[in-house]
């Protein structure tokens, strides 16, 4: 079970924001702070304030003394400092994972709400082992430049890490999760029928979780004023309102993250357009059921959910792990 509290990276960002605020309230520039404390480099303070380095409790205590932080705030920030430095203990809750997997796991921990869109893939938190394995192995082959190379053990490590992240959605303190799925992500180019069938069945089950909302965007549906989202993105809102909302933009082999207000607001507008253009949650479930029945070798929609596709949907929390089915 992955941790559900804020990750060390979020603690670092929170600490950095508070330290910068205290410095500015004290009327001090970065240069003045460095001079008074006697640090050798101004970059040390910059890294702390931007959440890019593991904070040393003694350094933070020195800054808090200089800024005249109240006792209650001082105790809170020193506690955050300890959390921010415990990366090893936090990661111990997960299988071994790549840097890219870890960056997403760090954002997902402590979330109150996650909103995701991907123009070509099923988002990682929704993928079955088979679908995830295809995506990971094919990406490894592209990166290696050898189309016939053996993938080795690394893909299985990444699949295990992705499955560990998914238990977040069925945790008692699970975040609110909304995803807009493109029809292309579930088309026949995405994998063989048996993999797609497993993925569609899992999406049907996930769609009935009380905290999960899925919207299917048909390939020919216009978005907003004929807007074309250029890339996949995710929006994260955290349980602690003082942790900044974060935007993650996912490219083919690189990712970018931002807490800048204008960028966040722009992507929130895009996500609203996507949700408005996509099918409703109930119509999406019907589409998923029918799509499963259309796959070669399928017995029909009743193999996924008992009853006709048009039956009223009761959102429920299924027992057991979805990925075991």
Automatic annotation (TrEMBL):
PROSITE patterns per UniProt: HTH_CROC1
Location of the HTH cro/C1-type domain: 19-73
Membrane spanning stretches: none
GO molecular function: DNA binding
A Pfam family: DUF5753
InterPro entries assigned to the protein according to its UniProt record, in alphabetical order: Cro/C1-type_HTH, DUF5753, Lambda_DNA-bd_dom_sf
Region (Disordered): 299-325
Protein's name according to its UniProt entry: Helix-turn-helix protein
Protein source organism: Micromonospora olivasterospora
């Amino acid at each position: 079970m992955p941790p559900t509290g804020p990750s060390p990276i979020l603690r670092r960002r929170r600490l950095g924001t508070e330290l910068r605020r205290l410095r500015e309230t004290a009327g001090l520039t970065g240069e003045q702070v460095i001079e008074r404390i006697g640090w050798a480099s101004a970059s040390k303070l910059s890294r702390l304030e931007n959440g890019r380095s593991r904070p040393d409790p003694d350094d933070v205590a020195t800054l808090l003394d200089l800024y005249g932080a109240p006792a209650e705030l001082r105790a809170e920030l020193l506690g955050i400092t300890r959390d921010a430095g415990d990366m090893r203990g936090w990661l111990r809750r997960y299988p071994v994972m790549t840097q890219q997997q870890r960056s997403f796991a760090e954002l997902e921990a402590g979330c109150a709400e996650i909103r995701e869109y991907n123009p070509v893939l099923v988002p990682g938190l929704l993928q079955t082992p088979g679908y995830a394995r295809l995506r990971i192995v094919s990406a490894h082959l592209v990166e290696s430049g050898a189309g016939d190379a053996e993938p080795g053990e690394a893909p299985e490590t990444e699949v295990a890490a992705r499955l560990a992240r998914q238990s977040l959605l069925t945790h008692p303190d699970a975040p609110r999760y909304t995803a807009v799925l493109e029809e292309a992500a579930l088309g026949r180019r995405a994998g063989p029928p048996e993999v797609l069938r497993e993925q569609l069945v899992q999406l049907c089950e996930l769609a009935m979780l009380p905290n999960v909302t899925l919207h299917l965007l048909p390939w020919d549906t216009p978005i907003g004023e004929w807007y074309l989202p250029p890339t996949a993105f995710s929006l994260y809102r955290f349980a602690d309102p003082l942790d900044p909302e974060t935007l993650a933009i996912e490219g083919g082999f690189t990712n970018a993250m931002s807490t800048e207000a204008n960028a966040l607001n722009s992507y929130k507008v895009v996500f609203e357009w996507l949700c408005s253009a996509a099918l409703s949650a109930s119509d999406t479930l019907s589409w998923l059921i029918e799509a499963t029945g259309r796959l070669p070798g399928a017995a029909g929609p009743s193999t996924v959910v008992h009853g006709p596709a048009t039956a009223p949907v009761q959102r429920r929390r299924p027992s057991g792990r979805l990925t075991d089915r």
